[in-house]
Write a structure and sequence with these properties.
putative 2-phosphosulfolactate phosphatase; 19% strand; globular; alpha/beta; binds D-malate
């Protein structure tokens, strides 16, 4: 059967797309999906993405053992346990813990994809593992980029392109939308400069300006972990299909 692959460059474009029955990969390279991937790899029980800091505080009030993390304007929210730097979510901090996370674009995208058949979380950190899972997934795959305040962002499209490229290797029966083809082209042109591309992106430059340049290097690492987080009923945990 022919496999079709699409890339959506911003969650604002989702209103006209039917996700039912489809496999979705949510992408927010800087930094929500990188952070969540690292947290799950380090033994977090589950991650609950929510839209607002108020909602995160309300959940922790009912479940005081939960950690709350995320960012606004890239920075730690007052009263949160953790920010949105992936390296904060190390094993000694998150193992055996559940975490509520709210971020500007990434968690909004995750929640907007809840009607899909399957929702996976993708980042350069788990590229190889993700491709293995997608190889067994159904025939309609949509990569949804979180973008930046509704706009296209380079780092998410670059990662989507790396996945499209990997999924097309040795396959003749793959149907790509223009957005998927363009993402693949972006990756083919820049695959040797992933870090530089991330560094030169709008959000990469913003994070550097607030002292978080080390996160860019972290978020560019390929195959650091061998896990795929999956979102089921609004909770993200370890996918055990492989
Ligand atoms: C987001 O969701 O917009 C981000 O992950 C922003 C960031 O923390 O850099």
């Amino acid at each position: 059967m022919i496999r079709s692959i699409d890339v959506i460059f911003s969650p604002d474009l989702l209103s006209s797309i039917c996700l039912e029955g489809k496999t979705v990969v949510v992408i927010d390279i800087l930094r929500a999906t990188t952070t969540i991937t690292f947290a799950i790899a380090n033994g977090a029980t589950y991650i609950k993405p929510v839209l607002t800091p108020e909602r995160a505080f309300a959940i922790r009030q009912k479940q005081p053992n939960m950690l709350i993390g995320g960012e606004r304007y890239g920075k730690l929210v007052d009263g949160f346990n953790l920010g949105n730097s992936p390296s904060e979510y190390r094993r000694s901090v998150v193992s055996g813990r559940s975490v509520v996370i709210t971020t500007t674009n990434g968690t909004r995208t995750m929640r907007a994809c809840m009607s899909a058949k399957q929702v996976f979380i993708g980042s350069f950190l788990n590229l190889g593992a993700l491709i293995r899972v997608l190889d067994q997934a159904n025939n309609h795959i949509i990569f949804v980029c979180s973008g930046r305040e509704g706009q296209f962002c380079t780092e998410d499209a670059l990662f989507a392109g790396s996945c499209v490229n990997a999924l097309c290797q040795g396959q003749n029966d793959v149907c790509l939308t223009d957005a998927a083809k363009t993402s693949q082209l972006l990756f083919q042109t820049h695959h040797q400069q992933v870090f530089e591309s991330i560094q030169n992106s709008d959000h990469g430059r913003y994070l550097t300006s607030i002292g978080l340049e080390s996160d860019l290097e972290f978020c560019s690492r390929v195959d650091l972990v061998d896990v795929v987080p999956v979102m089921i009923n609004g909770r993200i945990s370890l996918c055990d299909v492989f």
